[in-house]
């Protein structure tokens, strides 16, 4: 579960392409897993069916072979007791006459070779035993044994299980004419020679033989390997306890159960996986190609639309999406492009309205020529004329004329930075005459700045200088003012610095946060110039106001060079 959660978290933070690719591959792997399991189970079922058929065929062959061998054993036993030579021996034995030799010697001379010849006729027979009234003869291919003690068993025709052998009992009368004495023939056979596994049967095949009473006669497996339960009927092959079982019935009524472990017909999963690995690899390649086609037809157009919408959310100018298709994505792109056209039209209309409003604000701001400055300057000229200070009168008239020529600026809303600095210079020169030794002023400009190549809003510096004089320096009687212009790679910095009385922290905070409301003592020019700059330059300008009461004030305008350079 943790792996699945991590995968879902990873997909959530990635693009639609990765989501599509990962989902497709996971779906393909899931389908291949189901196909692999289905093929594995189906192959196992087919192999089990094949094993069932093989076991049935081999069980039928074994049944025919076992019937033939059992019948041949019974036939050999009957032929043996009906043999003329054996009958002659029984006559001598039953007559109770004195043998010229004892019965053991007589049997050994007359019958052992004959019986060994019959044993040689049938490879299933291990030995033959003859039981008479007082004698027990045991004959095999290699040995002959005579015993005088006879087993007391019921002399009837039957098959018996003796240890690891099967025994056929055939009774006969010792006295051919009297029934008061009898004997029997016992034929011992090795069950493995009758119930055996043929070469065609699978490895691990096992056999269990039951008689007519379902008693166990023979099985060719150790007890540890034998199943706990096996069917005793002659039904069709069944699968039970991981075994394939087939039951065949012999002509004598015996049941032969053939069974083999299902593991002999089970495929190893790793082998199936190795065989299907090339097919799985080919399916993955096809799935990747399919995912790529989906990306071309569906994901890429959606990604393009997403990029355009994100650009719009970043306040960038929206652009039409280059998506051309006749499906639902194409319809979505057409609707978006129509929306972009409508937005372009509204944006153009808004720009025109903003431009008109800005021009009106700038014109209103620049038209604020304070009459008292002109009156004060004319008063100084008149006073200098009375003193007959001709050089000073001439300088004042020249500075005043040049000042107003720059103020009027031929009705333009923009002026070069050089003209703006000249305007400040003439303004300060007039004020230094007016206030004599009370005012010191200095204009410092970076020598690498080509001031004539930068154009700014007209009269953005002079009102700031006037504000510093009126509300910073003059209230304390005297002071010094600096006008500095410097730059870095991106910005141009215009600063007005004074060592006047400064402003309170409340006013500084309100001005920097944009919540400042003009007060009579704060000066209308400062508020007006800040609002005008932000209204026109938007996020391309930053105005910083720093002031400490009793120490002075710094006003800095930061402008991006690329928008003011000509």
UniProtKB/TrEMBL annotation:
UniProtKB keywords: Kinase, Membrane, Phosphoprotein, Transferase, Transmembrane, Transmembrane helix
Sections of the chain in a coiled coil: none
SUPFAM superfamilies in UniProt: ATPase domain of HSP90 chaperone/DNA topoisomerase II/histidine kinase, HAMP domain-like
Gene Ontology MF annotations: phosphorelay sensor kinase activity
HAMP domain location: 296-348
GO CC terms in record: membrane
Transmembrane regions: 20-40, 276-299
Highest taxon of source: Bacteria
Cellular localisation: Membrane
Protein name: HAMP domain-containing protein
Organism: Enterococcus devriesei
